[in-house]
Amino acid sequence: MESSCENARKYSNNVSLQELRDSLAGFAEYRGWDQYHSPRNLLLALVGEVGGLSEIFQWKGEVAKGLPNWSSDEKEHLEEELSDVLIYLIRLADVCGLDLGQAALAKIVKNAKKYPVAANQTT
């Protein structure tokens, strides 16, 4: 079986949630981790990773879009923490049998109805 790292290198810059889900499922299966990936355990791991992400911003005050004043090391650290959050979120949705991409699109439609654009707003 190919390692997940080797599979990850094959993906384009436009990786899909399905590709990530499949890669993560293979990664966990190959290592025998499925037994530990209960919804509860994955949720708790996700919460821990969100805490790690929060620590990055904790003492920075307001941060400009694009992070113009951040070093490349700080941006890399942020990428890693964001990736950890995404990985656990995708894995949790998969273990729960949910299609995260479809759920997100449905939520966007629901929010558009709940928060319509006012007549005087321009896009």
Would you mind describing this structure in some detail?
The protein is mostly helical. Helix content is 65%, strand content 0%. It contains 5 helices and no strands. Helix 2 packs across helix 4 and helix 3 runs antiparallel to helix 4 (72-95). It is globular, with a radius of gyration of 18 Å.
Q: How would you briefly describe this protein structure?
A:
With 123 residues, this protein is mainly α. The protein has five helices and no strands. Helix content is 65%, strand content 0%.
Explain the layout of strands and helices:
Blueprint: H1 4-10, H2 17-31, H3 39-57, H4 72-95, H5 100-114
Helix pairs in contact: 2-4, 3-4
The helix/strand class is mainly alpha
Give the N-terminus to C-terminus distance in angstroms: 49 Å
- The helix count comes to 5
E-strand count: 0
What is the averaged pLDDT score?
Answer: 91
Approximately what portion of the residues adopt beta-strand conformation?
A: under 5%
Silhouette: globular
Helix coverage percent of residues? Answer: 55-70%
Subcellular location: Cytoplasm, Cytosol
EC number: 3.6.1.12
Catalytic activity: dCTP + H2O = dCMP + diphosphate + H(+)
InterPro entries: DCTPP (IPR025984)
List the keywords:
123 residues, mainly alpha, 5 helices
